[in-house]
Design a protein that fits this description.
By secondary structure, the chain is an alpha+beta fold. 22% of the residues lie in helices and 43% in strands.
Length: 174
C-alpha cells in the first residue's frame, strides 16, 4: 500500500509522526549494528556489510557500512523510509581500531536502549573497561530533525591514545 505524497507532507509536520519515526530508529538500531544481528556483505559494494533491513508496518530502516580492507577507515549511512519514501538519514565516517569496536557497540546500545538521542550516536561519555567513549553532538543542531557532531574512543588512563573517531550528521529528508 502506498501513500499520497501530499498526505506524507501533512503527516511529517505532526509530532506523532516524528515520535513514531524516532521510536522506529531506536528499535532498528538495537536490532542492527549495536545488537547481535548478523551482518552480511552487499555484493555490489565491496567491503560493505549490513544487517537485515528492519521493517515495521510502513517503516523500513537500512544501515549499510563499508570498511576498507587496507585500513580501519569506514563510512556508513542509515536510511529510514516510510512507505518506501526516504524520510530520514544519518551519515557517519571515520576510523576505529578493532579493539575499540566493543566499546563503540556498547555505547551505541546504551543510548538506543535508553531512547537518548545524542546525534544518533552514543551518550556524551561512558567508560567501557579500559576505554572511554566520548560523543560531542553540535548543541545548536542536536535534534532528530537536524544534527551533526563527532565521537571518539580513547584509553581511559591516557586520553592522548585515540583509538578512533567518527564524524556524523543527518536529519529529515522531507
Amino acid at each position: 500500500m502506498g501513500i499520497d505524497i501530499r498526505e506524507l507532507k501533512k503527516m511529517t509536520g505532526e509530532r506523532t509522526f516524528l515520535k513514531e519515526m524516532m521510536e522506529i530508529f531506536f528499535q532498528a538500531m538495537l536490532a542492527g549494528y549495536a545488537g547481535d544481528s548478523k551482518k552480511e556483505p552487499i555484493a555490489e559494494l565491496p567491503g560493505s556489510k549490513m544487517a537485515s533491513p528492519f521493517i515495521r508496518g510502513p517503516w523500513k530502516v537500512v544501515d549499510p557500512f563499508i570498511v576498507t580492507p587496507i585500513s580501519s577507515r569506514s563510512v556508513g549511512m542509515t536510511i529510514i523510509s516510510f512507505y518506501d519514501i526516504p524520510v530520514w538519514y544519518m551519515q557517519y565516517a571515520g576510523w576505529y581500531e578493532k579493539k575499540a569496536i566493543p566499546c563503540l557497540k556498547a555505547a551505541l546500545h546504551y543510548s538506543y536502549e535508553k531512547h537518548e538521542f545524542n546525534g544518533g550516536r552514543g551518550p556524551r561519555e561512558v567508560k567501557y573497561g579500559k576505554f572511554v567513549y566520548s560523543n560531542s553532538p553540535n548543541d545548536f543542531y542536536n535534534t532528530f530533525k537536524v544534527f551533526d557532531g563527532s565521537e571518539s574512543i580513547h584509553v581511559a588512563s591516557h586520553e592522548a591514545t585515540c583509538l578512533g573517531v567518527h564524524q556524523y550528521r543527518g536529519g529529515l529528508m522531507i
